Amino acid sequence: ETAHSMLCLQVGRVVGAVVEANSGSIYRYLMPSEANSLATLYGGSSKVVERKTIVMLQGYQPYSVKHNKERESDSDRGNFVWQYGATRLLNPFTTFFVSPSANAASSAVAFVSAMANALNLDNAKQESFAYLNNLVEKLDVPGIQLGIGIQKEFVNDTTGFELHDFQKDYMLGLQKRQANPAIAVQGNLTRIACENSGISHCITMGCPSLTINREANLGATMAQNWENLFEKIKNGRDIKILLAIPRPLQNGDEKKVMRLFKRVASHHTTKVVEQTNSDPRLATQFGLMNTTIFNNVEEWFDYTESVDLILSGRIHGGMAGIARAT
Q1: Mapping DSSP to helix (H, G, I), strand (E, B) and coil, where does residue 185 land?
Q2: Which residues contact 56 (CB under 8 A, 6 or more apart)?
Q3: Is 28 helix (H, G, I), strand (E, B) or coil?
Q4: pTM of the predicted model, to two decimals?
Q5: What is the DSSP code (8-state) at residue 276?
Q6: DSSP states of 217-263
Q7: I want to staple 194 with a disulfide (CB 3.0 to 4.6 A). Which of 199, 214, 215, 280 is the partner?
Q8: pLDDT for position 44
Q9: pLDDT higher for 35 or 170?
């Protein structure tokens, strides 16, 4: 409720919430009714921001004891990374996020959904799309889809490569409520499948986790970090490495990566970040006993700053490091 009613102010090009600091780290959010008290401070250069209510599906909830506890049951903690990336694309000072079940959802002006591999063709979940279709119809507002994609082996011939009918229904429901294309898909394969299915509002954007680090000179920063790493290795200094275990594959190729990780661990200080339920078994099988788990991205991202290198068998294990230019 506080987040909904707090005063957000724009001063020049900067938008943010306004707080009143008391002793120590104690502060309170100012309410919109207190805007007049700031007039003498900022004069005519400021204006109160009218925040819009949007329904957010699969968004990331900030660090808290409650939210961390809720995330403990997630079978893939890599989900936190792309959910954070998707949520961070929205400005929290101009929009107020609510869940589909919240009372405030009835006053929402837009719908934003963040999903990963929901368009899988071989293991599609029809019941999930029944819920999504009903939600889109019930809200009946413009919608944005972020990061949706197909997880599939590469194919050369995409003729007739289409979505299931229940997937089409959801995407077409979004499309007819959009004035401009606002369905962000992970890759061109997904875009082609959508276009073959009559869906023209798709934009290839990649995973939302690609948008987390907004440093303009990220490449140069990471190149310098590489140089620093090589210098350490050349001087015989120990380096700290964070390992992200690959998922088990039908052909067993993950064991090749795990053997590499084991050799690396025999020469350097390493720690394994567990993302899925299969990680502890694989780590133990290859003697990688120094492990850790993060139930939030804030601590995960911060931890990556304490290591020199990340070797990841999964995209989000790597993106967690790139979020801090590691």
Answers
A1: strand
A2: 87, 90, 97, 98, 99, 112, 113, 114
A3: strand
A4: 0.88
A5: B
A6: THHHHHHHHHHHHHHHHHTT---EEEEEPPPP-TT-THHHHHHHHHH
A7: 199
A8: 64
A9: 170
